[in-house]
Each structure stands twice: as C-alpha cells, then as structure tokens.
Amino acid sequence: MKYGLSSYSLLDAINSGEMDILDVVTWVSEQGFDHLELVPYGYTLVDNYALADQLVEKAKSLGLELSNYALPANFIHETETAFLEEVERLKSHVDLLHRMGIKHMRHDVTLFTLPPECRTISYLEAHLDQVVKGSQLVADYAAQFGITTTIENHGMAVQHSDRVIRVLEKVNRENFKVTLDVGNFLCVDEDPLVGIKKLLPHASLIHFKDFYRKPYYAPPLNGKWFDTASGNYIRGAILGQGDLNLVETAKLIKASGYDGYLTLEFEGMEECRMASHLGLAYLKHLFEE
Question: How far apart, in whole angstroms, are the C-alpha atoms of residue 172 and residue 213?
Fold first, then answer.
C-alpha cells in the first residue's frame, strides 16, 4: 500500500496563512507519507503553471509522489453552451495534470450543494445523459495522456454505491474508474461496509476518513456537524477515533487484493496537522499490524 494525504486535510492551515502548498509538500514528506493528493482549495494551479512547476520540482526532490488531483465539477446545465464550457474547463485541468505528470484525476459530476429535491434517484436519471456524456468527453480527452479519470461517491445525487455504479457502467470507458471514499456513504445514510464491498472492484484509489455519528433525534448543539440525506448528523473525526468500522474496512480492502494508493482525508475540528499525523499512524496500524 502507498500511504498519502489529501492537501484538503490541511486546508485550515492553508486558509490561515500558516502554510502554502509548497509548505504542504515539505510537511507531508517530513511526516513519512508516500504521496500527496492535490485538491485546489486555498491555492490554484490551473492558472498558475509557474507554481505547478515549483510544486512538481519540490515533490520530486523530496521523493514524494503526486498521486491524484481532485476538483469539483457539474455536468448538469440548462444549455448546451454551458455544458460544453464545463467540459472545456475540465479539459484544462487535464492539460495541467499532463504537464505535472499526474496520472489520476477525480471530478464530481453534479453540484455538491444540491437542495433535497435534487438528491433523488429521479433527478439523477433525468440528467443521466448529461452526466455520462460529460464524463465520457473528459475521459476520452484524458486517455491520450494515459490519465485515469474517476467519479467519487461524493455529492448527494451520486453518492450511493448503486448510483456510482450506474454512472460508471453507462460511461463505459477503460480509463474511467472510482475514487472510493470509505466514509462518504454516511452522508446518504448507506451502510459504509455495504457500499465499500460494492465499489471495491471498481476502485483505482481509496480515500480514508472517519466520522462521528448522531441520530436525527439527538441533534448536537454546536461544532462542525452537518446533516445527512435523512436528517442524521455526522462530523469529521481523526482517523480511528470516530464511529466508522475501519478495522473491518481494512479487512475488506486487503481481501479484495487492492494494493494501491490509500489517501488520508481529514475534515474535522481538531488541529489539522496533529490530526493528519495521528491519522497516518492509525492508517499504517490498520494495514501493517
């Protein structure tokens, strides 16, 4: 396994000005991670090739692999012009990855902040042609560079394992796979172990995170909690300290034969560097002990 960190895990430190993305590269290497996933929040690369080149050189000098690039996207638009503009925007990010030598990209297919009426299976089916066509156009463009594009179980409309598989099978491209997030199923109240088993055969990269859970009838008073699709509550946790069954999750992954990138993603309330440091130790514990 290759243990990595998403730059999103350090967003608090980036937003506060304590770190920039080059500092992140150095820190991630010093902590003993094997690879870094780039999520361009708090910094931008697609319109700053000079910074992108600096980042590549620094990572190379430290022996840190750049494993993945993850960004928001939305293929559901009212006009063909807006749809094609979004496809071209995604292609510009593919060009960036080709320049940087990154071979794996994760993109959304719908907005993440959708109202409840747009989170249904009916909504997805009504717009499935756009979702599929957009994903195909981006995957086909990326294929010439040997880049794999992926959908993640993320965003309320396409977060359930069955919906992800529905899109995956309709897109039907060899270089279009799944970024499997072991915790995101809770956002739509799906049993994570069930979702993991369904998506593992299609996974080209795995996100590891943890959540605290509270039922709808016991709402928390404060903190970084958010509502699930069915009105329950979850909050990001340090890996191994929340309520996910990560021991069984690791067993399922090992039994599947997966032996690739494992990317730690922290989005909780605790100090982000401490949480990422502790998370790496627990991730290694899961797979090495």
Answer: 35
